[in-house]
Write a structure and sequence with these properties.
By secondary structure, the protein is α/β, with parallel strands linked by helices. It has 13 helices and 10 strands. The protein has helices at 2-12, 24-32, 44-115, 142-145, 165-171, 194-205, 227-247, 263-280, 303-311, 327-332, 341-351, 386-394, 415-428; strands at 152-155, 176-179, 211-215, 251-254, 286-290, 321-326, 357-362, 364-365, 376-377, 403-405. The strands form 2 sheets. It has an 8-stranded parallel beta barrel. Strand 5 (286-290), helix 9 (303-311) and strand 6 (321-326) form a beta-alpha-beta unit. The termini are far apart. The structure holds zinc ion (2 copies). Residues 290, 326, 361, 406 line the site of one zinc ion.
Length: 431
């Protein structure tokens, strides 16, 4: 009978019999080894807590790792920056050393010209006097010998040959001389024989003259629009450079030309002619472009125009070209050296740069400020007055710049120049 069996069984085994329950004694050993306990056996709350803790630990570890990475990255960046800086410093140092070496080399070459009188021609064998044994001409008094400033002197005659110029310098107490290497008012060129070059160099080393420059011919006009005249000028200018290099001169002074037709074209022609010649002729003799009074169509009477002329030369020629500051010309061109000396020199430095200044022509002016007329006067007796010359002789910025007089000689070749050089040295002494 299935029905009664079913009902009977219903009552016999209640589903919640105590025998089916896990006895408490059975739970204890499980608790003894919680490590081996499977998570499935943990309570849901505990599981959640563990999960959260694990997550927090992971987050903390990640944060710590990120921080570590950040610090490492920062350290690496700092190290890289230091390396870059060190490299830059090293490069700067290398550049400075190279510049210094180049300057030393140039100084060496320049003094080599002075020390080896045979330089510039074939096989001269000149005995260079030992220091202290240089014979001093009668022109130098003890006071003048005590003067140790930059080379100071005057334009001297070469009548009787180039070799007569250095002793003439001695006669007036000069340590710098300027000369013509040919008849300045004629196109006829001159070529020195080896004997003449030797005679000049021998004469020069016997004197205290440490700066010698040429002044080129007045006929040269490198800016001329006339092709024939310009070609003639270029040839004459080239020969002037060659003669001066042969004599071992420090510089050639040259006036910018006259543009005649149009200023800009004239400036371009002048610059192109200089480039043409300097690329053909090589030697340590520097070209010094002299400021002009600006009479007629003369170029180079303003600092700006001279700067433009210099800027037209290629970088390779720049070190070979500087400027000559003629006080009379600059004054006549309109720069008031007499009353605003500092302003003029600041403007000169801003436009041209003191580093381009290779020579002073010290001349007072017979003509007034801005007259554009080129008339030289004895120092202190012209429209500039002695104040500007006192400034030039005492300004430390000009202490190493050679200075040459081109003032009227008077009745003889010696008296005026001697007197003026002595006067300038008195100025230099602050008296
Ligand atoms: Zn001149
Ligand atoms: Zn001059």
């Amino acid at each position: 009978m299935p029905k009664s069996k079913q009902s009977a069984s219903k009552h016999v085994a209640p589903p919640t019999s105590p025998t089916t329950k896990v006895p408490p004694a059975m739970k204890t050993p499980v608790k003894k080894s919680p490590a081996k306990q499977s998570p499935a056996k943990q309570s849901p709350a505990k599981k959640l807590a563990a999960k959260a803790a694990a997550k927090a630990a992971a987050t903390a570890a990640a944060t710590k790792k990120a921080e570590k990475t950040k610090v490492a990255a920062k350290k690496a960046a700092e190290k890289k920056a230091a390396q870059v800086k060190a490299a830059a410093t090293k490069a700067e140092e290398r550049l400075a050393a190279a510049k210094k070496a180049a300057a030393a080399k140039l100084a060496d070459e320049t003094s080599a010209v002075r020390q080896v009188p045979g330089w510039g021609s074939s096989d001269h064998n000149v005995v260079v006097p030992k220091p202290g044994t240089i014979p001093v001409g009668a022109g130098l008094c003890p006071y003048e010998l005590a003067y140790h400033g930059a080379p100071l002197g005057a334009h001297v005659s070469t009548s009787g040959g180039a070799a007569t110029a250095p002793p003439r310098g001695v006669d007036i107490g000069a340590t710098a001389i300027q000369l013509f290497t040919k008849q300045a008012s004629q196109w006829k060129e001159k070529q020195f024989t080896d004997a003449e070059v030797l005679a000049f160099k021998t004469a020069l080393v016997k004197t205290p003259v440490t700066f010698a420059t040429a002044h080129d011919s007045y006929l040269i006009n490198l800016a001329s629009p006339n092709a024939e005249l310009r070609a003639k000028s270029i040839d004459s200018f080239e020969q002037e450079m060659r003669r001066s290099i042969a004599l071992g001169l420090d510089a050639v002074v040259s006036h910018p030309g006259n543009f005649m037709d149009d200023r800009a074209s004239g400036l371009a022609r002048n610059a192109d002619a200089i480039i043409e010649v300097l690329e053909r002729v090589h030697g340590p003799t520097r070209l010094l472009m002299e400021f002009t009074a600006g009479q007629g169509t003369a170029l180079g009477s303003t600092f700006e125009e001279m700067a433009e002329l210099l800027a037209r030369l290629p970088a390779a020629l720049q070190p070979r070209v500087g400027v000559c500051f003629d006080t009379a010309h600059v004054f006549a061109a309109g720069y008031d050296l007499a009353s605003v000396f500092d302003d003029v020199m600041t403007r000169f430095n801003d436009t041209i740069g003191l580093d381009r200044l290779g020579l002073f022509h010290l001349n007072d002016s017979r003509e007034p400020l801005g007259s554009r007329k080129d008339r030289h006067e004895l120092i202190g007796l012209g429209k500039i007055g002695e104040g500007a010359f006192r400034r030039i002789m005492t300004d430390q910025r000009f202490a190493h710049i050679p200075k040459v007089l081109e003032t009227p000689k008077g009745d003889d070749m010696i008296t005026n120049d001697r007197r003026l050089l002595r006067r300038l040295r008195v100025f230099a002494g602050g008296r």
